[in-house]
Design a protein that fits this description.
about 260 residues, mainly alpha, Four Helix Bundle (Hemerythrin (Met), subunit A), Arc Repressor Mutant, subunit A, 13 helices, elongated, RNA_pol_sigma_r2, sigma factor, RNA_pol_sigma70_r2, RNA_pol_sigma70_r3
Length: about 260
């Protein structure tokens, strides 16, 4: 019996996807097949969203991210490889939910341009480290990226803010098995209990409010007011090196508080 002769309600996911892959399939029929796939796997999206609830994001947003992952899985799955669709969809959906959290990891507002340069800086730094046999200095990074040294320093600050809050930040000695160092993103699907002490990951405002007045002021001037370290130093009557040291210490404290 041809797949097309089987009622949609009786088709497996793989059969539905095989039917969708047929050449010259009518758009209306493809839409029905896609709708059926989403309907039969909606429970997976809901289950995944519930697993990540109480992490500082609305349930509706988590569910939407899971559905986006499901649609991506449907679009990308290749039935010719003979893999299990449900397993593939679960991985893709979980990845999309993690992406949702990562996209919101910039809890301290960092200028967009410095966020966007972060990945470029990471790559350039790695390339130069390999070529030079040592870590590059700011002047070398600036020359390679075509930026001023001040712009590189600003991007480094943005990277520090991100690593303090990101789900990709290492969780010290915690692991999901195998003795390897893992990130919060690795732990998320592992066990809910592992997250009981990290519920505030997306809510750093109380931590910032608890900082001493000067540290809080410097942090807000730097990341909310978009002041440079030199401008902050001039405003507070201290050296730029002192400002840099305070920022590093504060970001380190925030990170430790978030993962303890």
């Amino acid at each position: 019996m041809a797949v097309l002769d089987i009622p949609l309600e009786q088709m497996t996911a793989e059969e539905l996807l095989t039917e969708m892959a047929r050449p010259h399939i009518p758009e209306s029929h493809e839409a029905r097949l896609r709708e059926r796939l989403v309907e039969t796997h909606a429970w997976m999206a809901k289950s995944l969203a519930r697993r990540y609830r109480n992490r500082g994001e609305p349930m509706e947003d988590l569910l939407q991210a899971a559905y986006v992952g499901m649609v991506k899985a449907i679009n990308r799955f290749d039935v010719r490889l003979g893999h299990d669709f449900r397993r593939y969809a679960a991985v893709t959906m979980a990845g999309e939910v993690k992406r949702h959290f990562r996209d919101r990891a910039w809890a301290i507002r960092v200028p967009r341009v410095h966020q966007e340069r972060r990945s470029q800086l990471t790559k350039v730094s790695a390339d130069l480290s390999q070529a030079l046999g040592r870590r590059p200095i700011v002047a070398e990074l600036a020359a390679e990226m075509g930026l001023s040294q001040e712009e590189v320093l600003l991007t480094l600050d943005a990277s520090a803010a991100y690593s303090a809050l990101s789900l990709d930040a290492p969780l010290d000695n915690r692991d999901c098995g195998g003795g390897r160092s893992v990130s919060l993103a690795d732990v998320l699907p592992c066990t809910d209990e592992a997250l009981d002490t990290i519920v505030g990951t997306q809510s750093v405002k109380p931590l910032i409010d608890a900082l001493p007045a000067r540290e809080k002021n410097i942090l807000l001037l730097r990341f909310h007011g978009n002041h440079t370290q030199a401008e902050i130093a001039a405003e507070l009557g201290i050296s730029q090196m002192h400002v840099s040291r305070i920022l590093r210490n504060v970001l380190s404290q925030l990170r430790k508080a978030l993962i303890d």
